[in-house]
Amino acid sequence: MIIDSFDTSEPLLKLEYFYGKRGNVVEKCIVLLSREIFAYLQTNHKLEQVGLIGGSSYKVPIYAFEHKGEKIGVYLSPMGSVLCGGNIVECSYITGATKFIMFGSCGSLDKNATDGKFIIPTEAYRDEGLSYHYMEPSDFIKIKNAERVEQIFTKYNIPFVKGKVWTTDAPFMETANLVKKRKEEGCIAVEMELAACQAIANYYQLELYDFLQPGDVLMEDCYDKALLHNANHDLIKLEIGLRIVEEI
Prior knowledge:
This protein has helices at about 15-20, 35-45, 80-95, 110-115, 145-155, 175-185, 195-205, 230-235, 235-245; strands at about 30, 50-55, 60-65, 70-75, 100-110, 120-125, 140, 160-170, 185-190, 205-220, 220-225. Helix 3 packs parallel to helix 7 (about 195-205). The termini are far apart. The longest helix is centred in the middle third of the chain and has 15 residues, at about 80-95. The radius of gyration is 18 Å and the shape is globular. Helices cover about 30% and strands about 35% of the residues. It has one domain (about 20-245): Nucleoside phosphorylase domain (Rossmann fold, 3-Layer(aba) Sandwich). A hairpin with a 2-residue loop joins strand 3 and strand 4 (about 70-75).
């Protein structure tokens, strides 16, 4: 069973087999999940390619740019726990980055709680497969740096709500019954990467700083995607991400 996947014996595939010697280019890296925010960075900042995450069907270039005298890594990540989580591991090895700032959109499960606010996840429900290869089975994983992100949001008067989120690998199977069940367990939003990325960060001793912007709304009897595009691509998330970069 998937919940029996965590194993502590030696991995047979090692990153050096694919990328050679470990890099040492940046300490901090921003994980983008918006093509429009990435395009804005390309237009308004001088990006230098410092690495390349390679696969048989895709390539993910890693860039660096200067921000207030510090070289920061950045790349446009594929969506979903497997690719997003795996890219963090590879980026860390290629560039030496140990601190990852990640932000994206999510579906609200409680519009009254999330309306007009960002979400700082405190725990993520593990409805995906990758995290079970990196830690013991459990329903939820604690988001390690939630309190630090909260401190930064509070310092800059950014509106937020804290709460549990639901990480799923099956976006077209967010059924009425599952929405009801996750809400009963305390989840206020649903997304596709966080549980896996936090498990990987814990395993490799990396630091992950995450926040979300609610867009579409999932209720037990209907679906509303009116705010989805804005939540996906709102540039304010980049501004907040850079604040986090400065503070950590």
